[in-house]
Amino acid sequence: MPIKSLKGIYNMTSTSFRTQTINLKISLMPTSLVDVEEAMAKQLNSLLLKYNNSARGVILAYDDVVIKNNGDGKVLFENPQIHYEVSAKILAFAPERDVLLRGKVNEHFPSHVGLLVYNFFNAMIPADVLVKNGFKFYDNVWHDEISSVPLDEVEFKVVKIHECAGVISIEGIEPHFSNFSSR
């Protein structure tokens, strides 16, 4: 998906999104030589919405794909694949420690609150952090201790990012209501 088609969906002023050019190695089977561009697009599409070490984040879109070495691939040793060096401009969701994010609460548990950031990425804030910051768990919902308003949308600081099999989960601290009109 081209990066420019995502304008308006994400906030480029947020430090959690970045565009960059990355270099990749793509291996194609000889049967892919019928349509190399389509085969490369399939390989690149398989990287979308997964954490990627080269991007240091979750790749959301790519554009401006360039096959290096005049488009020539290499056959290495007895491997049947043709190996290409490719560069592409990507858009990545790559929040770093201490960045402020906003999430919508989607689960309340006595041990933590679950959040969705940008309606896609999982985040959580542990119970001890919530209690320390003035929230109380009762009636199976986390509430502001003073106003008793249920926790629904939270701004928090990123403390850890966990990654497993390409999926990230964000752990937060210092939670507070992000929509102060509900207080």
- The number of domains is 2
Q: Give the number of DSSP strands.
A: 12
Proportion of strand residues: over 45%
The CA-CA distance between the termini, in Å, is 40 Å
Shape: elongated
Q: State mean pLDDT (0 to 100 scale).
A: 89
How does this model look, in words?
A hairpin with a 2-residue loop joins β9 and β10. The strands form three sheets. Strands 1, 2, 3, 4 and 5 form a five-stranded antiparallel beta sheet that branches. The protein starts with 16 loop residues before the first strand and ends in a 6-residue tail after the last strand. It contains two helices and twelve strands; from the N terminus they run βαβββββββαββββ. It is elongated, with a radius of gyration of 21 Å. With 183 residues, the protein is mainly beta. It has helices spanning 36-45, 127-132, and strands spanning 17-28, 51-52, 57-67, 74-75, 82-93, 100-108, 112-117, 121-126, 135-138, 141-144, 153-164, 167-177. The longest helix has 10 residues, at 36-45.
